[in-house]
Amino acid sequence: MKRDMDLIRKILLTIEEHDDSIQMNAFSHLQCNVYTLYYHIKLLHEAGFIEGEDASSSKWYGFVIHSITWEGHEFLDAAREDTRWQQAKEIAGKAGMGTLEAMKSILIQLGAETLKRTMLGS
User: Which residues contact 114 (CB under 8 A, 6 or more apart)?
Assistant: First the structure.
């Protein structure tokens, strides 16, 4: 299965909206199948972007998410703005660098450029 960076971003945004641990049903608005959702949540956990536990059984896929980690918040803060997110995806695509670390690096660089323009403009 291919990793879907848009889905990863949407999952993080959804987690951020909740105050407590959340279960898989909190993501029903994302309109993807349960295994795809589970797979991407598991990737976020493996990358250290979320804290939680795998609650899968032999009959269904599940994950209980407790919180977003510092690293996850850093990525989400850099990825929050839609225009910057689209720019980062375009740059990453042209460079063939679709990793979380590459996306984070690109997003931070774009954010720094925006900050610099803002500071120079004032």
Answer: 84
- Which of 58, 69, 54 is CA-nearest to residue 23? 54
Task: Say how far apart CA 20 and CA 38 lie, in whole Å.
Answer: 19
Query: Is the distance from CB of 30 to CB of 11 less than 8 angstroms?
Result: yes
9 pLDDT exceeds 90? Answer: yes
Phi, psi at 63, each rounded to 5°:
-150, 130
Confidence class of residue 51 from pLDDT cuts 50, 70 and 90? Answer: very high
pLDDT of residue 62: 86
Task: Give the pLDDT score at 35.
Answer: 92
Q: Residues 6 or more apart from 11 whose CB is under 8 A from it?
A: 27, 30, 37, 40, 41, 44
- pTM (2 decimals)? 0.88
Domains and CATH numbers, the chain: 5-69 (1.10.10.10), 81-121 (no CATH)
Q: Where are the alpha helices (DSSP H) in the chain?
A: 5-17, 34-46, 70-79, 82-95, 100-121
